[in-house]
Amino acid sequence: MQYRELYRMGKARLTEAKIPEAELDARLLLEEVCGTDRNDLLVHGDKEVPPEQCDRYVEYIQRRQKREPLQQITGYQEFMGLRFKVTPDVLIPRQDTETLVEEVMRYLHDGMHLLDMCTGSGCILLSLLKYSNDCEGTGCDISEKALKVAEENAEMLSLNASFVQSNLFENISGKYEFIVSNPPYIPTEVIPTLMEEVRDHEPVSALDGREDGLYFYRKIVEKAGEYLYPGGMLFFEIGYDQAEKVSSLMREAGYQEVTVCKDLAGLDRVVYGTLL
C-alpha cells in the first residue's frame, strides 16, 4: 500500500472511533512505524510501504482505536526537549508539568541536592539534572515498577540519580535544598469522569489524591521541613483549583513567600515557598 493511502486509512479509522486529534495521531503513528517525518506525506506519499510495516501500522491504529494512549503505543514522550520512556506503570509526562520544572530552574544553582517525591517516570528530576551542573538528585516512589522506568530513563540520558522505593518520606534520609513533587491530586470521585486514555490506561495510584485531592499535599507539607536545609524550598504541581488550599497548607507549616504560578493556558499550576 502507498504511504498516503495507509495514512488515509488510519485517519479514517481513528476519526470513526472519535479519537481526539485523529489526523495527527494517524500521522505520528505512521512516522513511528516507517521512521519518516511529516514531509514524507507531502513529498513521498506515493512510495510503497513494506507489508510488515503496514501490518504494524494497522496494529497501532487498532490499539489507538481502543483509546490506548499514543505515548504508550510508541513507548515514549517528549518532555523538556528530552525523550522519556513511558509504560502503563507511570503517568505520561504532560506539557503542563514543564511549568514546574521551569520554575524550579529559576532558583536552581549548581551543586544542589534535590528530592523528587512521587517521581514516576523521573521526568521532573532528570530534566532538572540534565539542565544543571553537579546537582545530586533522588527520586522516590511507592511503585517499584515506576522506579524501574525512571532508572531506565536516567540510563538513557546518561544521568546519575538515586531512586528509592518509599511511601512518601518513609525510606528517605538526608537533607535537600529543594523538594519537588507532582503528587496524585485528583479527587477520588472525579477519577471515573476522566478521559478513557487516562482513566483506563494510566496508574490510578498516581492520579488519586483521595477524597478532596489534597491528601498527599498535607502529608508532604507535614514532613518536608525535616528534610530541607534552612532556606530550602518546596515546589508542587497542583490542580487548576487547588492553589488557595495548597498555599494555605504551606503558610500554616511556616513556609514564607508562598507563590502561585500559572501554566501556558493561564491556569494555576505551581505553588512553592521557602522554609526559613
Summarize the structure.
With 276 residues, the chain is of the alpha/beta class. It contains eleven helices and nine strands.
Question: What does this entry look like structurally?
Answer:
With 276 residues, this protein is of the alpha/beta class. It has 2 domains: 64 residues; 188 residues, Vaccinia Virus protein VP39 (Rossmann fold). The chain contains 11 helices and 9 strands. The strands form 2 sheets. Strands 5-4-3-6-7-9-8 form a 7-stranded mixed beta sheet, sandwiched between helices. A two-stranded antiparallel ribbon has the order 1-2. Helix 8 links the parallel strand 4 and strand 5. The chain is elongated.
Q: Oligomeric state of the chains?
A: single chain
Number of helices: 11
Instruction: Give the total of beta strands.
Output: 9
Largest sheet: 7 strands, mixed
Output the structural class: alpha/beta
CATH hierarchy: architecture of the largest domain: 3-Layer(aba) Sandwich
Give me the Rg, rounded.
21 Å
Overall pLDDT score: 97
CATH topological fold name of the largest domain: Rossmann fold
Coarse morphology: elongated
For the record, the CATH class of the largest domain is: Alpha Beta
What percent strand?
15-25%
Neighbour order of strands in the largest sheet: 5-4-3-6-7-9-8
> Domains counted in the coordinates: how many?
2
Order of helices and strands: HHHHHEEHEHEHEEHHEHEE
- Runs with pLDDT <50, length 5+? none
**Distance between the terminal alpha carbons, to the nearest Å?**
65 Å
Topology:
Elements: H1 3-16, H2 22-34, H3 38-43, H4 51-65, H5 70-74, E1 76-79, E2 82-85, H6 98-105, E3 113-117, H7 123-130, E4 136-141, H8 144-156, E5 162-165, E6 176-181, H9 196-199, H10 215-224, E7 228-237, H11 243-252, E8 255-262, E9 268-275
Parallel strand pairs: 3-4, 3-6, 4-5, 6-7
Antiparallel strand pairs: 1-2, 7-9, 8-9
